[in-house]
Design a protein that fits this description.
This protein is an alpha/beta fold. The protein has one domain: 3-Layer(aba) Sandwich (Rossmann fold). The protein contains six helices and seven strands. The radius of gyration is 16 Å and the shape is globular. It starts with 14 loop residues before the first helix and ends with a strand.
């Protein structure tokens, strides 16, 4: 098992607000992987060294734990979420590493990965932070590696919840050093609705 006393690579942003969410059970924490990412895994697309950005309590990191090779890494700004994720790994007997870290400073990890998972992180960023994230992500994703994004779709009505994301916004963010493989309709499952929330799932390859 990975050491739960791993150092923090950089000071995370917005930690306090998300720590408050994880004092209870936030609506996105469904206690299992999102079906959209489980399908990607079933299709054999999640391979090699895996990084889960904005990992929350770790369900997607743990989904790929226990395979041959390096243990997957999950990072989140919330200390509370990371502590829960580490506890899950211990209880399930799975080898996974969880770090408190800033997703906008991924190069501070000093590592590279073959697959990066992002469930519900990208849609939290404003325009400037999206570009900053994409640049940092390119530095930690090996050429030919893949970034998989699951985020709120612009087809979601109203203004409650995180910012909506359009396919055009995804494409515009990942122009330099990236190639869009697919952007498809999907659903983010929540504890609040049996129907979930309209989303996009995107596969984006590091050039």
């Amino acid at each position: 098992m990975a050491d739960s006393s791993e150092p923090t690579p950089s000071a995370p942003r917005g930690r306090d607000s998300f720590d408050a969410y994880y004092a209870g059970v936030p609506p996105w924490d469904i206690g299992r992987p999102q079906s959209a990412f489980a399908r990607l895994d079933d299709e054999g697309l999640i391979v090699g060294r895996v990084l889960d950005v904005g990992c929350g309590t770790g369900e997607h990191t743990l989904m790929v734990a226990g395979r041959p090779g390096d243990a997957p890494t999950g990072v989140d700004s919330s200390i509370v979420a990371i502590e829960i994720a580490r506890r899950k790994a211990r209880e399930r007997g799975l080898d996974a590493r969880f770090l408190v870290a800033d997703a906008l400073a991924l190069p501070a990890l000093g590592e590279t990965f073959d697959t990066v998972l992002d469930c519900g992180l990208f849609h939290l960023f404003d325009d400037d932070d999206r570009l900053l994230f994409a640049k940092g992500l390119a530095l930690v994703t090996r050429p030919g590696g893949a970034y998989y994004l699951l985020g709120f779709s612009d087809e979601v009505g109203g203004d409650v919840g995180p910012r909506r994301v359009s396919t055009a916004e995804i494409e515009a963010t990942f122009v330099d050093q990236w190639r869009i493989r697919f952007i498809e309709p999907a659903t983010i499952e929540t504890t609040m609705s049996d129907d979930g929330v309209a989303a996009w799932v995107a596969g984006i390859v590091r050039a």
